[in-house]
Each structure stands twice: as C-alpha cells, then as structure tokens.
Amino acid sequence: MLTVNTGDILREQGEGKGEGNGEGKGEGKGEGKGKGEGVGVGVGVGNTALLEAKLGSAHESLRRGTCAGAAFTQWLTWPQAYDRDEYRRIKSAAGRIQAEAKALVVVGIGGSYLGTRAVVECLASPHYNLLPKTTPDIFFAGNCLSAAHTQEVFDLIGDRDYAVCVVSKSGTTTEPAAAFRLFRAHLEAKYGKQGARGRIYAVTDRERGALKALADKEGYETFVIPDGTGGRYSVLTPVGLLPIAVAGIDTDALLAGAGRAMEAWNAADASSLDTNPAWQYAAARHTLYRQKGKCTEILAFYEPRLRFLGEWWKQLMGESEGKELGGIFPATADLTADLHSMGQYIQQGLRNLMETVLLIDEADTPLAIPYDPDDADGLNFLAGKTLHDINRRAFEGTYLAHTDGGAPNIVIRVPRLDAYHLGGLLYFFMLSCALSCLMLGINPFDQPGVEDYKTNMFALLDKPGYEAEGARLRGRL
C-alpha cells in the first residue's frame, strides 16, 4: 500500500558524550564512537527496542481507548465500522445533487473542508471546476472571512442551479456560520424557502448544536459527524464522503483502502518497526525531534495536485502536536517549484529542519520531451525521456543535496494515486500522527489554543457578554 524509507535515521540514535577515545552511550543500549570530546551515535538494538516499547505502549493505549483524548478515537475503526445505512443515504443524496445542481458549495473550515478538498484535488484535479465533466463544480466557502472570496463564489455560480453542503459540529463557528447565512439567504431568494430546503444538506452533530436545531426546524437532510471523531480526523466520515461522492470519486475504494490500512497496521503482527510503516514514520519523527533538535518538518511533494493534501496534513500535525510549548512545526514544499524559492533555505538555512517526501511511483501520463534538431535550449539530452522520469531524477538529486546539507529525509512512496491508495495514505497519516503525539505524552485530539483568538475576536466584535473584554483589548491596539 505504501512504504516508508527512513534512511539512516533509525540507525543513528542516542547521541552521548564520552572521554578519551570518544566512546559514548546513546539512549537504550546502542554505543557509538565520535571525535573530540566523544560525541557518538548509538546504533545498537537497544535504541530500536526502546522506540518499539514506546510505540507499542502508545498504540495499545489507542486501541484499548485508554490514551489521552480516548473519547475521540472512533476514526481508528471507522473505515470498517461506519454506518452502512447512512452511507447509502450519502450516495443517494450525492446522486440527487448531481442530477439537480451544476455546482455544490461546501461550507466549512479546518477539518470540515481541508480533507474534502485534498481528495478532490488529488483524484480529480486541482483544476476540477475547469474540466469538462458530468458532475457539478465544487466551490469551498466559509473557510475565511474575505468578502472578495465569498462574493467571487457567488459570481462564479452565476445563474446556475446549485446546492449547499454545510459542515459544522456546532453551527456557531464564525467563518462557516457567516457564509452559510449568506448562501442560505441566496438560495431562499432564488428558489423560495421550500425549494431551498431540498438544496441544503447539513453535516453536523447527531443531537445538539445550532446547525442541528436549524436543520431539524427547516427540514434539511442531515448527516452525522461522529461524536468520537474530531474534525481533522473526519475526512472519511460524512464530512468528506458527501462532497467527494458528488465529485464522482469512488468512495467505496477510498474506504476500502483505509480499511485495508486499518487491518494491516493495527494487527498484532504489525507491532514492529520492521513491519509497520506508521511506526516507522512516527519513530523517525520522534528521533529527529527528541535527539537531533529537528523541530520543523517539511512535507515535500513533486505533484501539484498534492498541495491540499499538504494543507490537510498541516492541520492534522500542527493542531494535534503543537501544545505545551512544544511539538514539530509542519510546513509544506511544492517541488520542484519551491526549489526556486525555499530551496536555498532548506539547503543552507537554520538546521532545525527535517523533510518528509511524498512520492507517487506510477505516472498518469507518458508525456515525453521531443527531439529538436536545432537544440537551441540545449535540452536534447532529455529527448525521449518522460517528464515523470525527469521529475524522479529531480527528487533524487534534491534528496542527496538536502541530506548532505543536514536536512534528513523520510521518504513515503505510494504506488499510484487512486482512491484506494489515497484512503490508505489518509489513514496512515492519522495513525502516525496519533502515535507521534502519544509518544510525546500529548493528547492528539484536543486543541485548547484555538479558543484564544476566538475569545479576542468575539470581544472586539461586541458579542454579548464580551463587552468589558472588548474595551480592554481595544486599549491595547
């Protein structure tokens, strides 16, 4: 399904200091030799044993539901334990939207839209709306407070028939709530209140919240955000499945790939660094962070359609791990383009970087460079070579340059980018993220820090009950 190559990272652990001949002991039982004051790198089996013990403990607490945030681990078994009846309703609703609408507006922010957009761009195209197709265009709104962006969505829809899928657990998050007010009013003006009801689909809490109450009152069809799954882990739930199905993507294959990953990487015989890619990735990140001081991770990819997968990954890792004044800062690099902007920093900037490279092995097209008899550009040495092969040589050259420059690389290889393998990849990242956090003693499933800006914003907007705080904050601006 996928492989993880950690290079020498998991063989280079346990730095220590010694005297005389520079012998030092690393964490675990690995010993190493160094120069000068004896900085050495432990390589022995003790380091692997220590990592496996930590990973085993973390994974077992996740499976047993005894870890921090255990109430939000439903995603772990979701690919096979999802509600079949609701899934049939999702497919039916997607079919109606496809038949009745030329566009679908997905209203949501963070985990309520990033995974959806990632899947659509990976499997359909970043230019999905520009392609000739029989499925509706898909627009994303409610992920910012930009008037220009929101108005542009209205302008791009124009007079076409459209539907709205609003995704919110509470219904009160400012960005999607404000956008939904605007689109709901527009739909009601266009189709009348009764007509609008049949074009609004709410993905929300099973029982509570402002959106659930409104959906029940107005008669919108609703789908459930599982209580035990937080937003950044929800792409394979109705949060993502409804709009992904509207785009004509094979959701059966997406769930099957995630289900296969769930079986393979949670099995008893997968409790080893030799057999479990999620363990390998989590262990390499942990080693580089704890022992090498690599506190920034760049997810690099050589296919532009992976850009929003990177955006989804940034939220997954950053919101899960960035707590208690620690954690690895997640960033992305779209290569080779960013080699002409960020490449200099990655090569010679502050050495706090690790790089995780996501590679797709199979090419979608055999597009090759033609021969030019004039060879004015000097590129005839590339004649006959496919762009995919050239892209791969660019990766190999970059890999060698960056690792030589002190930016260690983890390489994740996926055989092909289809729904099945993407489902497995999404599950891989979620499992690896949870394990990484638990190894650090961090709750992977809460996000207490995001409330701080909301409190300030509410106060500055004069939300009832925040007046005194608003006056205090304005005095600081």
In short:
With 477 residues, the protein is α/β, with parallel strands linked by helices. It is built from 16 helices and 14 strands. The chain has helices spanning 45-64, 78-81, 84-100, 114-123, 147-157, 174-197, 210-218, 238-246, 251-266, 277-292, 307-321, 343-348, 387-404, 419-439, 450-460, 467-474; strands spanning 3-5, 13-16, 23-25, 31-33, 40-42, 103-107, 137-141, 162-167, 200-204, 221-224, 296-301, 329-334, 353-360, 409-414.
Could you describe the 3D structure shown?
- With 477 residues, this protein is an alpha/beta fold.
- The chain has helices spanning 45-64, 78-81, 84-100, 114-123, 147-157, 174-197, 210-218, 238-246, 251-266, 277-292, 307-321, 343-348, 387-404, 419-439, 450-460, 467-474; strands at 3-5, 13-16, 23-25, 31-33, 40-42, 103-107, 137-141, 162-167, 200-204, 221-224, 296-301, 329-334, 353-360, 409-414.
- The strands form four sheets. A five-stranded mixed sheet has the order 1-14-13-11-12, sandwiched between helices. The chain has a five-stranded parallel sheet with strand order 7-6-8-9-10, sandwiched between helices.
- Helix 7 (210-218) links the parallel strand 9 and strand 10.
- The longest helix is centred in the middle third of the chain and has 24 residues, at 174-197.
- The chain is globular.
**Span between N and C termini?**
52 Å
Ranges where pLDDT stays below 50 over 5 or more residues in a row are 14-46
Anisotropy-based shape: globular
- Helix and strand pattern: EEEEEHHHEHEHEHEHEHHHEHEHEHEHHH
Structure annotation, total helices: 16
Q: Average pLDDT value?
A: 92
Largest sheet: 5 strands, mixed
Structural class: alpha/beta
- Assign a percent range to the helix content: 40-55%
β content, as a range?
A: 5-15%
Work out the number of β strands: 14
Using only C-alpha atoms, the radius of gyration works out to: 25 Å
The strand order across the widest sheet is 1-14-13-11-12
